Amino acid sequence: MKADIMADGQDDDRIVEGYWDVDRLVAELSDARSRWRQSQQHHAEYGAEGFPSRDNMAKITQSLCGALFPLRLGPGYVRLHNEDAYVAETLQTVLSRLHGQIRLEQIYALKGQPVEAVDKEAARIISAFADGLPALRTLLDTDVDAAFLDDPAARSVDEVLICYPSMLAIIHHRLAHRLYELGAPLVARIVSEIAHGKTGIDIHPGAKIGPSFFIDHGTGVVIGETAIVGARVRLYQGVTLGARSFPADEKGHLEKALPRHPIIEDDVVIYAGATVLGRIIVGSRSVIGGNVWLTDSVPADSNVRQAKAQYEVTSRVQVSAPHRVHALVEEATDGFGENI
């Protein structure tokens, strides 16, 4: 057997030639990209300056979480005595990196503008974002308190911060929403999708969410771009705050940014699997039951639930295995099976 034949299961990194034409593939892929860019000039791809990076934004967001909650979401060496020093060092680094990502987005958003305009806009966004971090931390404290108070399984606020995927999603959303408001929607969307991938909770950065927000369990929750959620709202897993229809223009293209998602007023509870669609209003203190499909507004203090299901309870043993019933009876008469 030839020495260069690889054993079963062993990687073979040798370059095999003759099965493809690399030069032709490169040329055809280049042509495909050129055709795409030519046809998409009205919303062109980012150019030679580069893209905001999802990998970089994941690291930036993780550092921001640590700066906001250093003792719980920061590195293990942070203690009370060095907390402020860690926050100062982290912010100096992470805000510089975030500024770079925002600047890349502005190069695209301000296409054709002089570099001075790009730098000025990026500086405005990062400055306002940094100034808003203390208020954002205060807002997040209300979310942590809401989770602790509304979940009987929560033993401490520390557990909420460290363990709850919904808290991770909410922190990311608060950061993303601020960036979205300030004029960096692409960077904001990257932040929200990082949380989506980690938690299964999909909150568009455009959604406006009030204080003391809590998502119990969380997997499968979807909150659309133009949704408005009031104070002290509680959602359960699988809830959708979505759009019912998508208006199109005369060319058949979907119109963007139209209000199309629900308005959820204060103190509303929406249970697992409920779907709330369209620009409707769910009035304050209302309760939307599990698996409800709601497309009409409801007034304050409403209780919306499904019609009671009709079902019949029968003995599974008697229906599916009558011979087993006889066997159990015989065992019981012999002194066995009293506890069956």
Automatic annotation (TrEMBL):
Main enzyme class: transferase
EC code: 2.3.1.30
Segments forming a coiled coil: none
GO terms, biological process: amino acid biosynthetic process
Hydrolase in keyword set: no
Gene Ontology MF term list: serine O-acetyltransferase activity
Keyword vocabulary terms for this entry: Acyltransferase, Amino-acid biosynthesis, Transferase
Statement: the UniProt record of this protein carries the keyword Ribosomal protein: no
Reaction catalyzed: L-serine + acetyl-CoA = O-acetyl-L-serine + CoA
InterPro entries found in the cross-reference section: Hexapep, LbH_SAT, Ser_AcTrfase_N_sf, Serine_acetyltransferase, Trimer_LpxA-like_sf
Family: Belongs to the transferase hexapeptide repeat family.
Protein name (record): serine O-acetyltransferase
